[in-house]
Amino acid sequence: MDDKFKIPQLLLRYALGITFLTPVSDRLGLLGAAGTGNIEWGNWQNFIDYTTTLMPVFDRPIVNILGGIATIAELFIGIFLIIGFKTKWSARAASLLTLTFIVFMTLSVGIQKPVNYGVFTASAASLLLSFIPNYKWSLDNLLAEK
């Protein structure tokens, strides 16, 4: 039987992986300084300042820890999706993480920000990816063959 998901799952994995890695690169200052080009934060401090507005119920030290956890999660999710490692679980984690972003963003700054940033799309696309039966051209597929 022909697998019609070969190319779509690959493109979806890459798109979502890049979607997770780009903001990590931004908040670590790898894409440039704040205020230049399309740079949202440009450094960790600006990222934590913004994250504090999204989580007003938490003290800044807690927000710093939660921001670090989210950044590490995004880094691993992005890499795992691109290489296709533990893809089903990475996609589920991506969907849950973005759903968490949706809730905090909506409660603190309104529904328009998560819509503008495509967080709903990323969450739904991640969930959809987790239901694809086979991840051709992935590390998962390569390891399953051995």
Automatic annotation (TrEMBL):
It is found in: Membrane. GO terms for cellular component: membrane. It is a multi-pass membrane protein. The chain crosses the membrane at residues 62-82, 94-111, 117-137. Pfam families: DoxX (PF07681). InterPro entries: DoxX. The keyword Membrane applies. Keywords: Membrane, Transmembrane, Transmembrane helix. This is DoxX family protein.
